[in-house]
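protien #1 (seq + structre)
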Amino acid sequence: MTHLLVYGAFGWCAEILWTALYALVTGVRGDLGDDAGQLKLSREQRLRLLGHTYLWMFPLYGVGGLLFEPLHDALRSWPWLGRGAVWTVLIFAVEYVGGAALCRLTGRCPWDYSYSRYHLHGLIRFDYVPVWFAFGLALERVHDAVAAM
């Protein structure tokens, strides 16, 4: 149970940081469930560093982290490039399946990437490969810290 809580909290914090920095750098805020898509932000709005996440993301990050634990131990000896590639593919899979399940359950996925040129069914963005690559490698460090608890 502790592992689930740590992974869920880590994912939430990472997402809040990501969305705040994304808005600061790009000047747009992603969909917050208001059907407006990408919203242009003023300089003052960008500097607020408003990040966000969804309650649904906690179990998604938590369960995803738990699913990856045995794999992390199996891949530990691999070069970082190979491990990062595996994490990227698996994170895309969890994001896609989780998003599709939430669509079926609630009628809508909390995130909608359809505005991006590089999306698949609005559920994943292929231009996020570097983000998920780095996130997967960071999650290895979180797993090591959790395993040492």
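ok now protien #2
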Amino acid sequence: MNKKTNPIVVRSILVGLLIFIGIALFQASQYQVISMLLVIAACIPIYYRYEKKQLNIKELVLIAVVTAIAVLGRFLFYMVPAITPMTAIIIICGICLGSEIGFLVGSLSAITSNMLFGQGPWTPFQMFSWGMIGFLAGVPWMQKVLGKSYWFLALYGIFAGLFFSFFMDIWTVFSIDRAFSWQRYLALLLTAVPYTVSYCFANAFFSCLLFRAIQTKLQRILTKYDIK
């Protein structure tokens, strides 16, 4: 009787190996390198799974188009970094198109928009955080809840803003101290409160404002071109 290896076990082993190798190579002094490897490793399974699927050109074009729209949303509001519809568009794509496409749109939007705003060691962290925001929005029970209630959609937008800010501040601590410091982390959270509040508000506002319009357009495209 053949038994399939549990993917969670495989990923857990991979994470453990990365931590061990990182500590062995960098003597635990370059935590930002280790953390970057972990983020990249977290992104690989989604991309690998998607590469193994039989995709048609229509689905690829749809992913490219919604990613371009998300990037455009960030670009148009670049003068006010905390106010951008990009995260809202990623959330809506996750709700309407599912977890995998939500993750792809989120992570691809990060790396694509950074071609305009600047690439760096922070890019994998942005890819993972925006990708996870799209992924979680596409979880089946989340799709139902977020698609039926503007209140829950707004709350998820606030959660997305907090998640992104809290996660990226972890990277900031590593980049400054090369080790994690709770004092530095809490200080960064406090100094970023105005930015975080504005970002959460923007996510909630744009998610509720754009949801029905984008949902209607995506449903028409999915039906017209028979994209499943």
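Residues 193-224 form the longest helix (32 residues).
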